[in-house]
Amino acid sequence: MAAELHVELVAADRNVWSGEATLVVARTTSGDIGVMPGHQPLLGVLESGPVTIRTSEGNTVIAAVHGGFISFADNKLSLLAEIAELADEIDVQRAERALERAKSEADAAAERRADVRLRAVTG
Amino acid sequence: MGAQLRVYKRRIRAITATKKITKAMEMIAASRIVKAQRKVAASMPYATELTRAVTAVATGSNTKHALTTEVEAPTRAAIVLITSDRGLAGGYSSNAIKQADRLTERLRAEGKEVDSYIVGRKGVAYYGFRERKVTDSWTGFTDSPAYADAKRVAAPLIEAIQLETAEGGVDELHIVYTEFVSMMTQNAVDGRMLPLSLDKAAEEDGAKGEILPLFEFEPSAEDVLDALLPRYVESRIYNALLQSAASEHAARRRAMKSATDNAGDLIKSLSRLANAARQAEITQEISEIVGGASAMADATAGSDK
């Protein structure tokens, strides 16, 4: 049986996703990082970006995460984010509108947020 | 209808109307407590994980960070006081305000200046009326606070604690809020957020004595701590806001319940009085008729002679 790690993806006001996974890829401030079962204890700062979770059933869960932390210890991985959305929760049209608006207003932060959402959906 | 009876009837009508209002408020508050409690529960995983992470960095590394080390002689402290926007919640706001007053006094006795930050219209009004200095205040969201509100409250506090004391910064950060224990019990409590006392943080986490693994930090322990602590403050404030909101609704429900009960008692005793007044009126009328009739009878009997 393949080794598994327990993942908790929590936003400030709710638990977004939790379950078993075989691989988690997230973007920290110093680059993308992949965590597999048995990784050494880790605590990192996340950048806004998509997080990819490969579940033990072989599915892939993608979430857009805006800032936060990744912490891994005892085969338990916690992804803490102020805002986190699963790909299928994201309203594509709204994100596209937000992206256009952010571009026209030259709001870099908002543009990045919308961009991350769209990339999480398209994969 | 006699004047006395009319007065009673009018009072009963007025109290019945008030009772309807307080009953409605009671039921609204009761339904909101459940919602607020659910929000508190939903915010717990994040708070717990964050506390764990903060404890891990602070104990697992030898980093000295401005926010975790105690200043030798702290000279200024900030207090965040969380009250409600609306009244009719019994002693809810005044209990929190009293707790803040006690804390302020204690800090002053220790030789610290105190900066007050206030959430909620009731607290702002209290401080405004007494012309006390308020460094910053926020109103309009105590009913159902969102994470963005907590961020707004936390921003100037984080800024103040990062400043040097000589430049107007603060050394300590305290928070006064109303802890939600149960539907019947809510306590006004104060707590120190920063500098972090690690034993306390671990205790809150419920993971006392747990040996934390040696973490690898990405990019570095200092950077992680730099990023973590503001989030930690925000999450603590968010949790305090949510608990206060739940407590506010619980306090309002209790206050409105006793108001409804009192109105019921009043209506009861007033209707007794009204009944007695009506009966007295009837008795008087009967005795007047009887008296009149016998006087008539006496008069006709007299004329017959």
TrEMBL record, chain A:
- InterPro entries hit by this protein: ATP_synth_F1_dsu/esu, ATP_synth_F1_dsu/esu_N, ATPsynth_dsu/esu_N
Q: How does it sit in the membrane?
A: Peripheral membrane protein
Write out the entry's keywords from A to Z. Answer: ATP synthesis, Cell membrane, CF(1), Coiled coil, Hydrogen ion transport, Ion transport, Membrane, Transport
NCBIfam families, A to Z: ATP_synt_epsi, PRK13442.1
Q: Which GO terms describe its cellular component?
A: plasma membrane; proton-transporting ATP synthase complex
Name the coiled-coil region(s).
76-119
* Primary location: membrane
Task: Keyword check for NAD, yes or no.
Answer: no
Q: What does this protein do?
A: Produces ATP from ADP in the presence of a proton gradient across the membrane.
Q: Which protein are we looking at?
A: ATP synthase epsilon chain
The record ties this protein, via SUPFAM superfamilies, to: Epsilon subunit of F1F0-ATP synthase N-terminal domain
The GO terms describing molecular function are:
ATP binding; proton-transporting ATP synthase activity, rotational mechanism
Give the record's family classification: Belongs to the ATPase epsilon chain family.
Instruction: Give compartment(s).
Output: Cell membrane
What is its quaternary makeup? F-type ATPases have 2 components, CF(1) - the catalytic core - and CF(0) - the membrane proton channel. CF(1) has five subunits: alpha(3), beta(3), gamma(1), delta(1), epsilon(1). CF(0) has three main subunits: a, b and c.
Q: Please tell me the species this chain comes from.
A: Streptomyces subrutilus
Q: Where is the ATP synthase F1 complex delta/epsilon subunit N-terminal domain?
A: 5-83
Automatic annotation (TrEMBL), chain B:
CDD domains to which the protein is assigned, alphabetical: F1-ATPase_gamma
Q: Which SUPFAM superfamilies match?
A: ATP synthase (F1-ATPase), gamma subunit
Q: This protein's superkingdom?
A: Bacteria
Bilayer topology reads: Peripheral membrane protein
Q: State its location(s).
A: Cell membrane; Membrane
Q: Name one Pfam family in it.
A: ATP-synt
What keywords are annotated for this sequence in UniProt? Answer: ATP synthesis, Cell membrane, CF(1), Hydrogen ion transport, Ion transport, Membrane, Transport
- Quaternary structure and partners: F-type ATPases have 2 components, CF(1) - the catalytic core - and CF(0) - the membrane proton channel. CF(1) has five subunits: alpha(3), beta(3), gamma(1), delta(1), epsilon(1). CF(0) has three main subunits: a, b and c.
What does this chain do?
A: Produces ATP from ADP in the presence of a proton gradient across the membrane. The gamma chain is believed to be important in regulating ATPase activity and the flow of protons through the CF(0) complex.
Report the sequence similarity comment from the record: Belongs to the ATPase gamma chain family.
Give the protein name, as stated in the record.
Answer: ATP synthase gamma chain
Q: Which organism is it from?
A: Streptomyces virginiae (Streptomyces cinnamonensis)
